[in-house]
């Protein structure tokens, strides 16, 4: 990922998001990544988008209860109707003293028209 800008989301998991290992469910973090990627894809496409594929996803380190999660996302590739968004999640813990990269993924979104069919992306700014 290039120089990190501001996170798209900052969020804390709750007690109901814990799995039997005592870590945070992968599905919880995937959904935060999907929301953040969707926000970036919506900005780029200037409208509605749907996730069509998760091209890659790596769980690098566990997320712990009381971590603060920052979700960073940026456009990595653009097609006619689709945008691939690189999404990185960083956990802040130990009262803000420690930052750990916990996941990395490449999600592809498709811009949708009113009929929920692929829509051409607007020209890049
Ligand atoms: C100013 C306004 C601001 C707005 C600010 C909004 C903010 C908003 C925030 C909230 C944001 C929430 C974000 C929710 C995100 C979900 O949770 S969406 C829910 C889960 N996803 C779905 O239900 C989608 C289900 N799938 C579909 O409906 C259809 O597959 C789709 C998406 C309409 C695509 O239809 P299709 O017939 O497969 O289309 P097709 O023409 O074959 O392919 C279209 C493009 O997708 C690519 N593609 C297709 N399959 C793949 C694949 N497996 N891998 C990679 N690329 C693929 C194609 O290569 C093509 O790319 P281009 O060459 O055109 O660039």
TrEMBL record:
CDD domains, sorted: BFIT_BACH
Residue span(s) of domain HotDog ACOT-type: 3-115
Coiled coil spans: none
Gene Ontology, cellular component aspect: cytosol
A GO BP entry: fatty acid catabolic process
Keywords, alphabetical: Hydrolase
Any one Gene Ontology molecular-function term assigned to this protein's record: long-chain fatty acyl-CoA hydrolase activity
Gene3D superfamilies: Hotdog Thioesterase
UniProt-listed PANTHER family: ACYL COENZYME A THIOESTER HYDROLASE (PTHR11049), ACYL-COA THIOESTER HYDROLASE YCIA (PTHR11049:SF5)
Entry similarity comment: Belongs to the acyl coenzyme A hydrolase family.
Name of the protein in question: Acyl-CoA thioesterase
Source organism of this protein record: Sphingorhabdus lutea
